[in-house]
Amino acid sequence: MKLKQKLLIIFFSITLIPILITGLAASNIASTSLEELTFEHLRAIREAKKSEVLTYFADRKNDIELLSSTVKGLLDTSSIDALNQSAHANQSYFDQYIKGYQYYDLFLIDQSGQIFYTVTREADYQSNLTTGPYRDSGLGELFKDVSSSNQYSMNDFSRYAPSNNDPASFIAYPFKIDTGETIILALQLSIDKINAVMQQRVGMGETGESYLVGSDFLMRSDSFRDSQNRTVVASFAGSVSQNGVSTEAVTAGLNGTTDTRVIEGHNGKHVLSAFTPVKIENTRWVLLSEINEAEAFGPVYSLYETLTVVILLTIMVVLAVAILTTLSIIKPLGGEPNDMRRMTEQVANGDLTVQFHPSNNHSGIYGAMEKMVYTLKNLIGDIIDSSSQLASTAEQTSSSSLQAQSSLEDQKRSIEQVATAVEEMSVSVREVAQNALEVAGSTNAAKNQSSEANQMLQQTMENQPAWP
Known about the structure:
Blueprint: H1 3-74, H2 80-89, H3 91-100, E1 103-109, E2 115-118, H4 138-149, E3 153-154, E4 158-160, E5 166-168, E6 170-176, E7 182-189, H5 191-198, E8 209-214, H6 232-237, H7 240-243, H8 248-254, E9 259-264, E10 270-280, E11 283-292, H9 293-296, H10 298-333, H11 337-348, H12 364-463
Antiparallel strand pairs: 1-2, 1-7, 3-6, 4-5, 6-7, 8-11, 9-10, 10-11
């Protein structure tokens, strides 16, 4: 790998890895925090809705108990016939009552199961819930339950033929008239009232919703996100797969679990779901508050987008800085360090056949190496030329040396002769010197004798008398 590539990788690693780690950590923390915050919000909505639903059915129980007292005070309860006549006479009261309290219908049923009064007078009017065609309906089952328990009860939604086969739920309460006979007062609940409770969506964004699902996985309130296929009416008219909800959360809720999870919702999209079981009398439902994951994590996705833009900008800046820095490092070198090391070793081993990249712009150390190799080649060429000249000169010198050697031998012989003559001369000189010494001695002696003779002569002359 080239130095430039290594440097770029190092720069990117030093710069981008911390950014990526920080960004991923921040986004993970943000995602976790936002998920927990969203779940906390959904839990609050879930519990509020559950409280409203339980309060709604508790109020319905209070309504029917209070209504039974009103009926006994308002109507003639001396006999079944009197009660029947007085009920029909107060049709307007009961009509206003169900409209005011948002019920679908009101029923008075004697202990034999005969429905002798209804407000809406649908097909069930004057029918018998013990022997008639609706004995197995939801109202028929509720009549049997209340008759045997002699206390308030309710039944779950089921399709009810007299009401266009739409799903219906009933509550019932027994009371006695003056004859001691038991009369059962029943109210048919309105889906609209339950939907009004469940579809209050304050603080739930664009995709948030709360809804109820029964133990049969069919809707007990209309879905906001799928208002066509997943309504109570469509659910009972269709199938669980197309019109119901059988998600992980519903199954867990029917098993008594209260929790929050990220699941695949009924619309096929991932949702954050907060669910809890709801038990009303003998009825088991699941209440779910959900929001699409995409919306819940919208701020996190925005953070991802921002982080992506920042990383891309950082990459561009780092790339520019890395390239400039790399060039500032590589330019003085002029080439790849590995190439230059290889070339240096080759030159050090005496091989000047180094191949440089074909370019006229070599600079730095690489260029200096190229120049050095070129200079060495020229220098060695000059040395080779000089060596050739020296070889030629050496041959001439060798010939001259042979002649000089012969002359030297002649001179040697002459010198030896001279040396012999000199030696003989030296002997003669020594002899002459000896003779000279001897002559000098004789001379000195003669001189002394002459001096003595001269002194004697002088004394003789002094001793002579003077001449007259």
